[in-house]
């Protein structure tokens, strides 16, 4: 009996060919394919600027700098998120302030953010957890009059829609991940999108050591001494490679098919899980998700989650504990300013079910049978 993993990226010959072409071209670091991937990603979202970087973590780092966040500032974030969301705030010398989330979406709301706003709040990071669109407008209406910026952590969100538009596309700044645990993958990789041309130009410099003229532009100009770069502020090496971008261009074309298939499989879980199906994460009123993480909130009194995961593993099914909560981990322990009961409920009582493009209905039936047998 083969094991059913929780996720397999949908990669094929076309991606292998694209990566090989990049290698054969001799240009493997950030170059023409990164520029093409940025244009294609911006066009897909309908945003003016997209800056490719090495991960969503580095995308969040740059987005916070772009939002003017620095030492002494506070940034409201959900604790219920991959720890990179909070860590990015720490990288810029600011303090992550943890807000609770709503049960239905696992996301921040204006109501959970409001009590945490102070005179020091410089930004809020609104996460589209598991690809479920966050209600961005409500949070922006609350926060922007105070002079703070809402950065969207759309790490999981490529392919999800918010009020009919791609998730992240309406934010001042948004960050995406192309890690294989998300839908569209480049191995490792990320993107920052933004509305403002000057901010985008600064982020392009910051991802490349603060260089005023990028290495690929210098090369394109003939590499002559006529294009001398300067270094006007301290930057980073947050670049994506052309090999990754080549894969990303293929993956972006496949994204609509990935989302369609994942949504079909999520619907099928909901139908066939019986009463348990109602405990599966679902689309909110304001958008549609890509089911990057398809989580099930375990009923009260059902068997212990560790036992459930072990029971599933025993029949060859790999599920995962639910999304983590940063305030329960060592670096942030004891820092929560308010109780986070919904966060603790979701992180403690949910499991993420196997869901990937090539999951067959027979395999999914095995997962459903395993869950129904163990939970009832
Ligand atoms: C995966 C993830 C990240 C980090 O993405 P990387 O590309 O691995 O750096 C950040 N935020 C959220 C919400 C994520 O799910």
TrEMBL record:
Gene3D superfamilies (UniProt xref): Aspartate Aminotransferase, domain 1, Type I PLP-dependent aspartate aminotransferase-like (Major domain)
Organism the protein comes from: Kitasatospora atroaurantiaca
Pfam families for this protein: DegT_DnrJ_EryC1
Database matches in SUPFAM superfamilies: PLP-dependent transferases (SSF53383)
Signal peptide region: none
Similarity comment text for this entry: Belongs to the DegT/DnrJ/EryC1 family. L-glutamine:2-deoxy-scyllo-inosose/scyllo-inosose aminotransferase subfamily.
Keyword Transferase attributed: yes
Reported cofactor(s): pyridoxal 5'-phosphate
Presence of the UniProt keyword Ligase in the record: no
Gene Ontology MF term list: pyridoxal phosphate binding; transaminase activity
Active site as annotated: 182
Name under which the protein is recorded: Perosamine synthetase
InterPro entries xrefs: DegT/StrS_aminotransferase (IPR000653), PyrdxlP-dep_Trfase (IPR015424), PyrdxlP-dep_Trfase_major (IPR015421), PyrdxlP-dep_Trfase_small (IPR015422)
Keywords, ordered alphabetically: Aminotransferase, Pyridoxal phosphate, Transferase
Segments crossing the lipid bilayer: none
N6-(pyridoxal phosphate)lysine sites (modified residues): 182
BP terms from Gene Ontology: polysaccharide biosynthetic process
């Amino acid at each position: 009996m083969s094991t059913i993993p929780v996720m397999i990226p949908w990669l094929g010959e076309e991606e292998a060919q694209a990566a090989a072409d990049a290698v054969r071209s001799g240009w493997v670091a950030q170059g023409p394919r990164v520029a093409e991937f940025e244009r294609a990603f911006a066009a897909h979202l309908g945003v003016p600027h997209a800056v490719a970087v090495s991960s969503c973590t580095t995308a969040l780092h740059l987005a916070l700098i772009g939002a003017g966040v620095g030492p002494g500032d506070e940034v409201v974030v959900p604790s219920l998120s991959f720890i990179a969301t909070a860590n990015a705030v720490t990288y810029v010398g600011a303090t992550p302030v943890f807000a609770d989330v709503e049960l239905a979406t696992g996301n921040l709301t204006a109501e959970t953010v409001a009590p945490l706003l102070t005179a020091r709040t410089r930004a809020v990071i609104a996460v589209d957890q598991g690809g479920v669109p966050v209600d961005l407008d409500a949070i922006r209406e609350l926060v922007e009059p105070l002079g703070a910026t809402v950065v969207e952590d759309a790490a999981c969100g490529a392919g999800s829609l918010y009020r009919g538009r791609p998730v992240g596309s309406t934010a001042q700044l948004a960050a995406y991940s192309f890690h294989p645990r998300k839908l569209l993958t480049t191995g490792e990789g990320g993107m920052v999108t933004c509305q403002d041309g000057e901010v985008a130009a600064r982020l392009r410099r910051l991802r490349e050591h603060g260089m005023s003229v990028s290495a690929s532009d210098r090369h394109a100009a003939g590499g002559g001494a006529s294009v001398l770069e300067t270094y006007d502020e301290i930057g980073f090496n947050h670049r994506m490679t052309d090999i990754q971008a080549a894969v990303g261009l293929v993956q972006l074309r496949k994204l609509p098919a990935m989302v369609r298939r994942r949504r079909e499989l999520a619907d099928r879980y909901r139908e066939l899980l019986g009463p348990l199906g109602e405990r599966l994460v679902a689309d909110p009123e304001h958008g549609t998700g890509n089911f990057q993480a398809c989580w099930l909130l375990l009923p009260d009194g059902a068997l212990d989650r560790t036992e459930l995961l072990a029971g599933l593993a025993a029949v060859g099914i790999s599920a995962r504990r639910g999304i983590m909560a940063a305030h329960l981990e060592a670096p942030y322990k004891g820092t929560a300013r308010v109780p986070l009961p919904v966060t603790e409920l979701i992180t403690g009582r949910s499991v993420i079910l196997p869901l990937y493009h090539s999951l067959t209905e027979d395999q999914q039936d095995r997962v459903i049978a395993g869950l129904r047998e163990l939970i009832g």
